[in-house]
Amino acid sequence: MTITHAHPRWNIRKFFSRFSQYFILSLIVILVLVPIVILVFGALKTRGEFMTQPYVPPIPPRWDNVVAILTKPSYSFWQMLRNSLIVMLSVTSAVVVICSLAAFVFARMEFRTKGLWFNLFTLGLMFPINIAILPVYFVLRQLDIIDSLFAVILVQTAFQLSGNIMILRGFFTAIPAELQDAAYIDGCSAFDFFWRILLPLARPALGAVAALTMIVSWNDLLVPLIVLNSDILWTLPLGTMQFQGQYGQDLSLVSAFVVLSALPTIVFYFIAERQIIAGLTAGAVKG
Amino acid sequence: MSLPAIPNIFKLNRGTGSPRRLQDNLTIFLFLLPGLILFLVFVIYPIFQSIYYSMFNWKGFGPAEDFVGLDNFKNILGDKVFMIALRNAFLLIVFSLLLQLPLSLILAVMVGRDLPGRAFFRTIFFMPYVISEVITAIMWLFLLNPNPNRGFVNAVIVAFGGEAQPWLGDTTLVLPSLFIALTWKYFGFHMLLYMAGLQNIPHEIEEAGRIDGASAFQNFFYITLPLLGSTIRTSVYLSVLGSIQQFILVWIMSKGGPVNASETLATYMIRFGFVRFQLGYGSAVAIYMFLICVTFSLLYQRLTRQPDYLTGL
């Protein structure tokens, strides 16, 4: 009797709490999406339409700006895309290889000075690139590699090491010790165990680290901004910033460029959302 | 999550000098080598080198010869603009801790563990985090345009009968404006951390609280919040470090202006290092920033527990 009495009342309360939950969450969804939508609207208008009606949906959409950016050689969109791809792929492969080697040693091998070296790497977390950029610039000048993609790749890789070694070490430590014992008894060397057993097992972790590194490298502006002078070497973020500086008056054209340069990231995000999130939360939350 | 290290009962003979031990040492050396070289050359060495340069008055041409001792460090502390940068870093930290993180936490709790549509909300809220800072900055530069026919924010304000604001052109409004853009970009990241933290709290504990008659508020403040402790610590840590080194968004949206009102430590350093080419002075600023970060990290670890971010799993 009490149950049948209590049940509907609880349901109404639950309904209202759910309703307000969805209401607030939808409001935030709108706040997150409006800036993006306005930008896309602007990108699909002519300059004149943008001046007279900046906020209405572009009906019909005008593809002039988009086509201009994709085809006009002086905007060098494809050149920048290519540079960004070279940097991103190099950095990501380097980070995955170097970090899994180091993380394996820190997670699975014993030696006397291990703590010392590990703490050295944690120091990197307190010296992020935004602070280090000027000191790093001196080193690049001494090595005489200023104004090359190679320098961008080296610096981005170096500053991705600390965090990713921590993440991978965590994953590697979670793989049962019995596996390692069994492998050693069967005559595996440390390298065999790493290559044939640990890496295949850690594939999701490597995917997470790769996805995270790709995003960070692809979006980085500071290192290219400081290192690269020649415009044929500009990466997409640097090119986007310069484009905004040069054509800032033509808001619809700049909007189109910004949308096009954001597109690869958004597409990649929808493909690799799971890996990106796994990497971030592993780095920060587990425990 | 991590398994306790099980003592290796089958430990084979690994005395020093055994071939096995030798092989292991070689593996350790070769595996650490590439990471160490990059790290020492591009992270550790620059720290020491900029300590050296910070004691010179050096324009970057030829060797540094004009030794000035600690003058650069003294002059920085005497510069009003540096003090503004410090104040702005502090304000950004306060804004983040009082507004951005609570907002993220509330949203994470709202989305919770099993709300239908959870994945959708997470995908949307987290999206700004993967969009680059350049794009975020240009987007908000447009939105905050002082002319209501160009800037959407002012258009909305005017539509509701308000008055258009100069936002980025106003010395008092510029920092809150930047903070709004920063929040738009970063709240999803913190929400994600909290959601993952919530995922680790067993459902049964809150269930038990409810059965024992705890209200939703009691449940949240006495059960959920304390159990989220380590996640909150991490999120606060990352948020503070992020606020201290904020650069790209500020550089593109306001260049640290108007009249230095939105200067941050990083824009201050870049201005002296790469715009005015006072490299010795810029190095000293970098050293100060590094010291602030290290001091904060060590104090924070001492005061709380070591952030989980640093201990890995």
Determine the mean pLDDT of chain A.
88
Oligomer: heterodimer
| Residue fraction in strands of chain B | under 5%
pLDDT under 50 segments of chain B (min length 5)? 309-313
Q: State the helicity of chain B in percent bands.
A: 55-70%
Instruction: Look at the helices and sheets of chain B and give the structural class.
Output: mainly alpha
Describe the structure.
The complex is a heterodimer of chains A (287) and B (313). With 287 residues, chain A is an all-alpha fold. Helix content of chain A is 79%, strand content 0%. Chain A is built from 13 helices and no strands. Chain A has helices at residues 2-43, 47-52, 64-71, 77-108, 114-123, 129-143, 149-173, 177-185, 190-201, 203-219, 222-227, 236-247, 251-284. In chain A, helix 4 runs parallel beside helix 7 (149-173) and helix 8 (177-185) packs across helix 9 (190-201). Chain A is globular. By secondary structure, chain B is mostly helical. Chain B folds into 2 domains: 14-53; 71-311, MetI-like fold (Orthogonal Bundle), CATH 1.10.3720.10. Helix content of chain B is 69%, strand content 0%. In chain B, helix 3 runs parallel beside helix 7 (174-199), helix 7 (174-199) packs antiparallel against helix 10 and helix 8 (203-211) packs antiparallel against helix 9. The termini of chain B are close together. The model of chain B is unreliable at 309-313 (pLDDT under 50). Chains A and B meet through helix 1, helix 4, helix 5, helix 6 and helix 7 of A and helix 1, helix 3, helix 4, helix 5 and helix 7 of B.
List the defining traits of the structure above.
heterodimer, A: 287 residues, MetI-like fold, 2 domains, 13 helices, 79% helix, globular, disordered N terminus, B: 313 residues, mainly alpha, 69% helix, disordered C terminus
